[in-house]
Amino acid sequence: MEEQRRYRVHIFSSYEGKLSEAIKLYKYREDLKISGLLVDVYLKLFEYFPPNGEILTWVPSSRDSLERRGYDHMARLARTLSKETGIPYKKVLINVSNGRQVERDGKDRKEMGRFRLSLPPARRVVLLDDVLTTGTSVKDCVKTLLAGGAEYVEVYVLAKG
Q1: pTM
Q2: Surface-to-core class of residue 136, CB atoms within 10 Å of its CB (0-12 exposed, 13-18 middle, 19+ buried)
Q3: In a domain, 21, yes or no
Q4: Scanning 21, 47, 118, 152, which has the fewest C-beta atoms within 10 Å of its C-beta?
Q5: What does the pLDDT read at residue 43?
Q6: CATH number reported for the structural domain that contains residue 25 in this entry
Q7: Residue 66 lies in a domain
C-alpha cells in the first residue's frame, strides 16, 4: 500500500511581473508598505486552499541574510497572517546554513540539512515561503518538521521561480 503523503504545497503564481517586483521590494528594499499586498496574496491562497494547521511558521532566512537585512522578512508576514487568520505563529525552524541561498549555484542550492528545530512542531503545521526555486528549502523544512513530530505540513508559497 502506498504511504499517504504528509505534506502539500500550494503556489499562488510564477515569479515574474508585478508579483516578482513586489517580493523583491519587500525582501531586499525593506518596503514595508508592500507587506500588506503580500499578506493579501497569502490570504487569497488560503481562500482557495484553507489551511488546517495548529501553528503557522516560515522558512527562516540564513544568518547572512538576517545580518544584511536586520530582520527575517518571512517572520513579519507570518505575524500579520497570524493576526488575520487566528492561527498562532511560532519560530519552529532555524536556518543553520552559511551564505545566502540566492548566491548559491544549482548544486549548492540542493544541499539538504540546513534547518533545525528551535522547538517541537505541532501536529499540523502551516509553512510559509516567498519563492520556490529548486524546492530544496521547502523539502528540507518539511523533512525536518516531519522528523520532529509533525504529522502533516501544508506549504504556502507566493511564487515559483
Answers
A1: 0.90
A2: middle
A3: yes
A4: 47
A5: 98
A6: 3.40.50
A7: yes
- Is 15 part of any domain? yes
Q: Are 2 and 149 spatial neighbours (Cβ–Cβ below 8 Å)? A: no
Is 122 inside a domain boundary? yes
Contact between residue 103 and residue 65 where contact means Cβ atoms under 8 Å apart = no
Residue in the structure block whose three cell numbers are 502551516: 126
Tell me the per-residue pLDDT of 103-160, one tens digit each, with 9 for 90 and over: 545 455 456 689 999 999 999 999 999 999 999 999 999 999 999 999 999 999 999 9
pLDDT reported for residue 104: 44
Which domain range does residue 142 map to?
7-160
* Residue 152: Cβ within 10 Å count: 20
Number of domains in the chain: 1
